[in-house]
Specification:
With about 300 residues, the protein is an alpha/beta fold. The chain is built from eleven helices and 13 strands. The structure holds zinc ion.
């Protein structure tokens, strides 16, 4: 087993797929139950890491996967997955049926935000997924993991309108995608992740309140890893989202560049105040994509004022 894989109880493997060639950025999960399932695939460029990791734990064939949402850091490698494992079946929000067989529109839309060059270099091109390999999810649908174990797909908008979380009652693990936010290694707090065009506080808080009612032991985040103290982290995520909204709202109409400088130094100051070590702070600051956060928050605040 490679050292960037961690095995948790009840046969859940956390796999670091080295997004953007860096450790600790994107986790996929493999539930090695009687009827196994992969959660998330990561971007295209990470696919070789995923395959070699799976092989290192003796997995040479993956028949099913569940995707939390249609952002390319989570599903970019989906066409590679279906191409490699011929009988592969993907569980995803119904928008997957629309976009994945012909991913050009999705690619173009994301390129307008990140630029095509950045996307190709950092996450890699996306290949089409035939419609016969896609299963569109319904809220509260149960995915069979074998021997009576089930994974419940829970529709949860707020971060993205096409977002599902997946709850494994057997291990009390909730696969969160990006619904909670970011927690990097050594972090015991949650950094908000509120991108345009879908971030909506009310929807996100409804989702988090709903998830908070589940019997939980672990939160499995995409960015990054498995975490205990689920209820404390959900509460912390909500507090921090409120604070970020207030901060951005108070900046009023200043330019995006100035807002970027302000929020970066404000967040850094907060973490220094919490006595977080320098390398953890840099990990959060360098990987947050603050431009996107400002756009997402401003878009939400604008829509709230102009319904
Ligand atoms: Zn993500």
């Amino acid at each position: 087993m490679k050292q960037d894989i961690i095995k948790f109880d009840n046969n859940i493997y956390q796999i670091d797929v080295f997004m953007e060639n860096k450790p600790g950025r994107m986790s996929c999960y493999y539930i090695d139950s009687a009827n196994p399932l992969l959660v998330e695939v990561g971007p295209s460029n990470s696919f070789p890491y995923l395959v070699s990791s799976l092989e290192s734990i003796g997995i040479s064939e993956v028949n099913r996967s569940a995707m939390t949402h249609l952002h390319l850091d989570h599903i970019g490698g989906i066409g590679h997955l279906v191409e490699k494992y011929k009988e592969h079946f993907v569980y995803i929000h119904e928008l997957g049926i629309k976009h994945l067989p012909n991913p050009e529109r999705l690619w173009k839309a994301v390129s307008e935000v990140y630029t095509e060059e950045w996307l190709s270099t950092n996450w890699g091109k996306i290949k089409p997924t035939p419609v016969k390999n896609i299963h569109s999810l319904k809220d509260k649908e149960l995915i069979n993991l074998g021997n009576g174990r089930k994974l419940e797909a829970i529709y949860g908008p707020g971060h993205a309108k096409h977002h599902y979380t997946f709850y494994d009652e057997y291990s009390k693990t909730l696969f969160m995608g990006d619904t909670l936010g970011l927690i990097y290694p050594h972090g015991n707090f949650v950094q908000p992740n509120l991108p345009p065009p879908d971030f909506n506080k009310e929807l996100l808080f409804n989702t988090l309140d709903e998830l908070n009612k589940l019997d939980l032991k672990y939160l499995a985040l995409a960015h990054f890893g498995m975490h205990e103290n689920p209820y404390k982290l959900i509460e912390n995520a909500k507090e921090n989202i409120e604070e970020w909204l207030i901060f951005i709202n108070n900046l009023n109409d200043i330019s995006e560049e100035s807002a970027l400088v302000s929020i970066k130094s404000w967040v850094r100051g907060n973490y220094e105040f919490l006595n977080i070590d320098e390398s953890t702070i840099n990990n959060y600051i360098n990987n947050a994509n603050f431009e996107m956060q400002i756009k997402g928050i401003r878009n939400y605040l604008f829509n709230k004022k102009n319904p």
